[in-house]
Amino acid sequence: MEEERLQKFLANSGVASRRQCEQYILQGRVSVNGEIVTQLGVKVTQNDVIEFDNKVIKPISKEEYVYIMLNKPLGYVTTVSDERGRKTVLDLVDIDKRIVPIGRLDMYTSGLLLLTNNGDLVYELTHPKHEVSKTYEVSIDKDINNQELEMLRNPMDIDGYMTKGASVKIVERLPQKVLLHITISEGRNRQVRKMIEKIDHRVLYLKRIAIGGLNMENLGLGKWKYLHDSDIKKIYNR
Ligand code: URA
C-alpha cells in the first residue's frame, strides 16, 4: 500500500494547502489512528484513520475533483475560515464539498480566484518552482514615465527579495489615471501593490484577470462557475 506524507494526504483530501496542513499538524489538530501527531514527516496509508479537528478525513478520488472559478469582490479574505470573523471567499461559493482557494488575493484585490479539492493542483499552482504567470489589471493615480515603466519591468528589491521582472503594458493613459496590465510569475505577498509603491504611485484598484492562459472573461463580480479539465489546461497555455 502506497505511503504518503500526512500533510499531502490532508491536502489531497481537500482540507487545505499542504503548507496550511503542516500548520494544522504542528497545532495538534490532526490525529492518526487516535493519536495526535504534532511532528512533520509522518507517513500514512489508506488503511490509517486520519482525523482533523476530530472529524475523519476521507481521501478524494479523481472523479470527485471540482474546479471553481470565482470573481472575488473586494472585502473578502482568501481563506477557509477567519479567526476575526470576516467574510471569506467560501461564503460566496455554496457547495457541499470541502474546497480550498488556490493561492491568495488580498482583501482589497478583486478578480480571478480558483478553488478546488484537488490538493495536487493547489501545490502545483502555488509552489514557486512552477512559475505560473498571473496577470493583474491595475489602475494607478497618475501618469507613468518610461523610467518608471522600466523599473516595473526589471527585477526590483521588495522587502530584501529581488523579483524576477514583469511584463507591463499600458492599456489606457489619462492625466490622472493610468490602466496597466502587469504579469508576474511569482506570488509574493502584496507584490503588485509594493511594485507600484516603489515607483511612488498609488493603486486605485487591483484586479486579477488571468492565471497563465486562463482568463476570467465575463464572469460577474461575486459570481462563480465550475471549470472543466480543459479550462485547467488553459492555465499552462501561455
Ligand atoms: N499583488 C498584490 O499586491 N495583491 C494581490 O492580491 C495579488 C498580487
How many DSSP helices?
A: 6
User: Would you report the number of β strands?
Assistant: 17
pLDDT below 50 for ≥5 consecutive residues: which ranges? none
Which hetero compounds are present in the coordinates?
uracil
The figure for the number of domains is: 3
Distance between the termini: 38 Å
Give the topology:
Layout (H helix, E strand, L loop, with lengths): L3 E2 H7 L5 H9 L3 E3 L2 E2 L6 E2 L5 E3 L2 E2 L10 E6 L27 E2 L8 E7 L2 H8 L7 E7 L5 H8 L3 E2 L2 E2 L4 E8 L2 E8 L6 H8 L4 E9 L2 E2 L8 E3 L2 H6 L4
Parallel strand pairs: 9-15
Antiparallel strand pairs: 1-4, 2-3, 2-5, 5-6, 7-9, 7-17, 8-9, 10-14, 10-15, 11-12, 13-14, 15-16
Helix pairs in contact: 1-2
The site of uracil has 8 residues, from helix 5.
3D architecture notes:
The chain is of the alpha+beta class and 238 residues long. It folds into 3 domains: 56 residues, RNA-binding S4 domain (Structural Genomics Hypothetical 15.5 Kd Protein In mrcA-pckA Intergenic Region, Chain A), CATH 3.10.290.10; 87 residues, Pseudouridine synthase I, catalytic domain, N-terminal subdomain (Alpha-Beta Plaits, 2-Layer Sandwich); 79 residues, Alpha-L RNA-binding motif (Alpha-Beta Plaits). Strand 15 and strand 16 form a beta hairpin. The mean pLDDT is 93. The strands form 4 sheets. Strands 7, 8, 9, 10, 13, 14, 15, 16 and 17 form a 9-stranded mixed sheet that branches. Strands 3-2-5-6 form a 4-stranded antiparallel sheet, with no helix packed on it. Strands 1-4 form a two-stranded antiparallel ribbon. The chain contains 6 helices and 17 strands. Helix 1 crosses helix 2. It binds uracil. The site of uracil has 8 residues, from helix 5.
